[in-house]
Design goal:
The complex is a heterodimer of chains A (249) and B (309).
Chain A lengths: L1 E10 L2 E11 L4 E5 L6 H9 L6 E6 L2 E2 L5 H7 L1 E3 L12 H6 L5 H4 L3 H5 L4 H13 L15 H13 L5 E5 L7 H16 L3 E5 L3 H7 L2 E6 L2 E6 L1 H5 L2 H8 L6
Parallel strand pairs in A: 3-8, 3-9, 6-7, 7-8
Antiparallel strand pairs in A: 1-2, 1-4, 4-5, 9-10
Chain B lengths: L1 H25 L7 H17 L5 H23 L4 H21 L4 E3 L2 E3 L12 H4 L4 H24 L1 H11 L1 H6 L4 H27 L9 H14 L4 H18 L6 H16 L7 H25 L1
Antiparallel strand pairs in B: 1-2
The chains are: A alpha/beta (249), B mainly alpha (309).
């Protein structure tokens, strides 16, 4: 589904991502972990097109999307959530999802119909996703007035409503309590059943280990390990990266 | 009576000007170019009726298109900059337009007099209304017909998906982009529609004042243009209308008896209004309250019909 070839992003002298090669197979939940500042979020920003790359390629379904603008990538099926929630606070929950219906399929529905309210099918779709996100009761609430957990759910809903093929989740569990994390876990699994490919960036290890099929570990912008959750957990390099190298005498 | 008709004309034209800035502000852009588009509309429409002998309706339609096309062309380079830089860029554009008309001399001899824009002296004798025998009331109705049309159009747009998309861009461009919205296209579209409405307002303005000159389209007018929607609030087009009535009717005309003290109070009252109602005179809470009033009015009505059955 997603392939990164020699992907690099330098901010001045800082090599945030440095020659990263990665393959995310179709239909899998792929975890990307690493210590703070290891370049995980930068990878998401490069894949969704918020920053231009310094070098390398981003391939989606074997097509090069490296030079495409963000909104074009959404139409191609790449959507994301943000680590620090970025909803449209002055719009209602419903409107937040309405403006995000931007897949190629939605776009082909006819310009006028879409802008003037859209066909009933698009509305039904929003209702279904509201239900999936447990936000049906809040549809007319302003997004800015929602509780934190609800805002997190709306962020996920907004990424899903565009019918993505590849979902980029940037620390979706940050600030959530145990119960909310369980619900998130269930939602990620449900989306996987529906055939969605997910790239999950997360610090909450229990969630990552439970929900992912494969994991890659980043440190200083480079991949230091990749494998199944079990393989990664026992990898000494990973333990060093997280716990620091014992400067042996 | 004529005083009030004249005031209502001013309010109508300034509402169009304010609504043009409202469109652009929805996308989070502060543009001081609206007076420039207004000036373009005024000169183009006046030249068409005076020099080419057009009827006023096609003349102001053409003027709107010219102003809209200019806004579209200007917005591509202008929207590459943001925030304060955009304010400066659009201010520079507005001043460039004003100075263009300061130097624009295109006079044609008609019998013994010369007509047409005469640079710094302005463009005199825009006499479509008196020549065709329109009374002040006719002109007033003509103006408010367009104001009503534009307000209805924008009110409807506000409720459609387009309105939500404009607001989404205004709130957070990065999030809008990541939600699949083509942010540049949305901003250019808003500027174009804004320019179109400003041009319409300008075209009407030129004909009811009968005399336009560059000094009318300066920074003060540009500031008024954005002050209306900011003061009125971005929740509804009616906010802009109320702000124009408040500023033109109350602050400018109503306080005339204060003489020179008026200007001082003027600034103070706007400051006060913004402090009391930081999200504008009409904000989301006002609209929610109106909706609640409407639904509670309906309920006793329902009870009565049930009782009758």
């Amino acid at each position: 589904m997603l392939e990164l070839k020699g992907l690099s992003k330098h901010f001045g002298g800082v090599r945030a991502v440095d020659g990263l090669d990665l393959r995310v197979p179709r239909g899998e939940v792929f975890g990307l972990i690493g210590p703070n500042g290891s370049g995980k979020s930068t990878v998401v920003n490069l894949v969704c097109g918020l920053f231009p790359v310094t070098a390398g390629e981003v391939l989606l379904r074997d097509e090069d999307i490296t030079g495409l603008a963000s909104h074009v990538r959404v139409a191609r099926g790449v959507t994301r959530t943000f680590q620090n929630i970025r909803l449209f606070g002055q719009l209602s929950v419903w409107q937040n999802l309405w403006v995000a219906q931007n897949s190629t399929e939605h776009r082909s529905e006819g310009f006028l119909r879409r802008w003037l309210g859209g066909p009933g099918r698009a509305r039904e779709e929003i209702d279904r996703i509201l239900e999936f996100s447990d936000l049906s009761g809040k549809r007319d609430e302003l997004a800015g007035n929602l509780a934190f957990g609800e805002q997190r759910r709306l962020e996920l809903a907004r990424a899903v409503v565009a019918k993505p093929a590849l979902l980029l989740l940037d620390e979706p569990a940050a600030g959530m309590n145990a119960e909310e994390i369980d619900q998130l876990d269930a939602r990620i699994r449900k989306l996987k059943q529906d055939g969605l490919t997910t790239l999950l960036i997360e610090h909450h290890m229990e969630l990552v280990m439970a929900v992912t099929d494969r994991i890659a570990v980043l440190n200083f912008g480079q991949k230091i390990a990749e494998g199944t959750p079990d393989e990664v957990q026992t990898n000494p390099l990973v333990q060093q990266a997280y716990l620091g190298v014992a400067e042996a005498a | 009576m004529d005083f009030y008709l004249g005031l209502a004309q001013i309010v109508g034209v300034h509402t169009l000007l304010g609504l043009s800035a409202y469109c652009v502000l929805l996308t989070g852009q502060v543009s001081l170019a609206q007076a420039g588009f207004f000036a373009i509309g005024a000169y183009v429409a006046a030249m068409l009726t005076v020099l080419a002998g057009w009827h006023i309706v096609p003349a102001i339609a053409a003027a709107s298109f010219v102003a809209g096309a200019t806004a579209c062309a200007v917005s591509f380079p202008a929207l590459r900059v943001k925030g304060l830089m955009l304010v400066v860029a659009t201010l520079a554009f507005g001043e460039a337009v004003r100075l263009f008309f300061f130097n624009f001399d295109y006079q044609v001899a008609k019998g013994e007099v010369k007509i047409g824009p005469a640079g710094g002296e302005g463009f005199r004798q825009i006499r479509f209304f008196p020549e065709n025998g329109w009374s002040t009331l006719d002109v007033l109705i003509f103006i408010w017909l367009f104001v009503a049309l534009v307000m209805a159009g924008l009110w409807w747009m506000d409720r459609s998906r387009a309105g939500a998309v404009l607001r989404a861009v205004g709130e957070d461009e990065v999030a809008a982009q990541s939600a699949g919205i083509n942010v540049t296209a949305v901003k250019v579209a808003a500027m174009t529609v804004g320019g179109f409405i400003a041009g319409l307002g300008g075209g009407i303005f030129a004909h009811y004042t009968a005399h336009i000159e560059h000094a009318q389209f300066g920074v003060a007018l540009a500031t008024f243009a954005i002050a209306y929607p900011i003061l009125g609030g971005l929740s509804s087009v009616f906010g802009t209308l109320i702000a124009v009535v408040f500023v033109q009717g109350f602050l400018i005309e109503g306080l005339r008896f204060l003489g020179d003290w008026r200007n001082l109070l003027f600034g103070g009252l706007i400051l006060l209004a913004m402090n009391v109602r930081p999200r504008g005179l009409i904000d989301a809470a006002t609209i929610a309250a109106v909706k609640r009033m409407r639904t509670s009015n309906k309920e006793p009505g329902n009870a009565r019909t049930q009782g009758a059955e």
